[in-house]
Design brief:
2 helices, about 120 residues, 60s Ribosomal Protein L30, Chain: A, alpha/beta, globular
Length: about 120
């Protein structure tokens, strides 16, 4: 087995400004990042979220906790800085975790957020 090192996994999703949609899409994004990178929750150090100012129905960290996820990780949320022509209704995530040093991180952008990083978008379902 390779030696482990700290990685940062990135992802984003667009959501409707509703508790249900933010809950569903935040948890789905988190689960997909862990699955795609073969990371267990025990390997996570912290989860950092940013949300655009138009998403105020539910804190994405609270969405994870409500779903029973990331119970031992440090969670943090802030409001994304506004810039002209920025994509709206976006939850971004940065997960710090340990993985085998030989791994190449897989970043996940979904539900319209592929526009932010088309180089990371792919055909996974």
């Amino acid at each position: 087995m390779d030696e482990k090192r700290l990685f940062a996994l990135r992802g984003a999703t667009q959501c409707l400004n509703s508790k249900e949609d933010i809950q569903k899409k935040t948890v789905t994004l988190y689960d997909e990042l862990l699955s795609e990178n073969n990371v267990s929750e025990e390997e996570i150090v912290s989860v950092f979220f940013s949300v655009t100012q138009d998403l105020d129905s539910l804190n994405p960290a609270a969405a994870l906790r409500k779903a029973g996820r990331a119970e031992k990780a440090a969670l943090f949320v802030n409001q994304e800085a506004y810039f002209e022509d920025s994509l709206d209704r976006v939850v971004r995530v940065l997960i710090h975790c340990y993985m085998d040093s030989s791994r190449i991180p897989v970043h996940v952008y979904r539900n319209g957020a592929e526009l932010l990083r088309p180089d990371f978008a792919c055909d996974r379902i």
